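Posted in: Structural Biology > Protein-Ligand Complexes

Title: Requesting predicted complex, zinc ion in pocket

I'd be grateful if someone could produce the 3D structure tokens for the following input. Sequence and ligand are given below.
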Amino acid sequence: MTEEWVQECLEKAGAYAATGVCDHCLGRAFAKKGTGLTDLKRGQILRAAMKEQGTDLAPQSPCPLCEDIFDLVPRFAQAVAAKVDTVESDNFLVGCRIDPETLKREKAYWEQYGLTDTAEPLKTELNREVGKVALPTINRAVEFVEPQVVACVDTRFADVTLDLAPVFIAGRYNKLSREIPQTMWPCRVCHGKGCPRCHGTGKMYLTSVQEIIGEPALEMTKGKEHFFHGMGREDIDACMLGSGRPFILEISNPQVRRIDLDELEKQANDSVLAQFHGLHFVPHRMVAIYKGSDPDKTYRARVSTDDKVNKERVDEVALSFKNVHLAQRTPQRVAHRRADLVRDRMIYWVKAENVEEESFDLVMKTQSGTYVKEFVSGDEGRTTPNFSAALGIQCTVEALDVLEIDFQETED
Ligand SMILES: [Zn+2]
Ligand SMILES: [Zn+2]
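-- Reply #1 --
Done. Output follows.
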């Protein structure tokens, strides 16, 4: 009548149970046998089977392994529920921190009685049991893969700390100012502490795209810090126009997750320096996708020339750049922070507009990573071919705007 797994375990279980362990600890030692049962139930079944065979081994109190820690499960669960209740989330997970002495003892038992291959850790059982009892009170789903809240119980003090997963908000921004950077830029002199150089602000610039949306988001989520993950970045003196640049705003330690994104957009868009649209929540993994994207870009460059130009000639040169490969050596202006390499970059097309006597606009679509200013100027021969050489007149970019970034968000 006895089930097969019970038969298989009885011999080892007998020797181990003689130490006086409780039913939880007995059952947990054979967690990989007799599946579909709680550890407690499995322990009870094994103990009853032993008794039937004439070995009546009662558990000691307290249990020499776990010291009856499972008696405290209701208390832990209550503490977890109370703490989780202080934050908003869709799901949660329980984690336990167990006295290292207990863990050491457990390991010694598994080794001594040859249970290492069939046992599950005390921590696993305790997490599960506390979660089970807390669940009806918390009334949120248990999430194992990407929990929004991990309630960690320190079992020595029944003390609960919350680990809140960051919240990620994606969208696109337009940068309408040539005077602010994309991200916060700490003062070079004081590194953020505040000094005369930065007039006590701790920053090189009064604000940034990041802060314009990050500050209201921080307030709404009651979070700790904001981080900005842009899909590339434009120079400080460049505007980001058109449909904007994709970005993800990360807020750490948010007490509130499901904020009203329309309201956030409205607050951020009070700024005249930057504008935001298309805000939506994304999972953490999208950050790597955004950071790893190399989208093609369309630019508008305001160009001045060292000599008079005529419209026909400028048009002709512009049209000659159709799917042209550039050999671009690292520009002089960034050589101090980038490896000196020659990169192959593609110019898809160039269009001239607003041609005046000594100036014109170039609208152009380029491969990701193209140094546009250097394509126009030639960077003293470091970029070939280049617009200046083709025109036969030295050209300089006076202002550069990004008009379009080719990016379609997909879930994978
Ligand atoms: Zn025990
Ligand atoms: Zn400073």
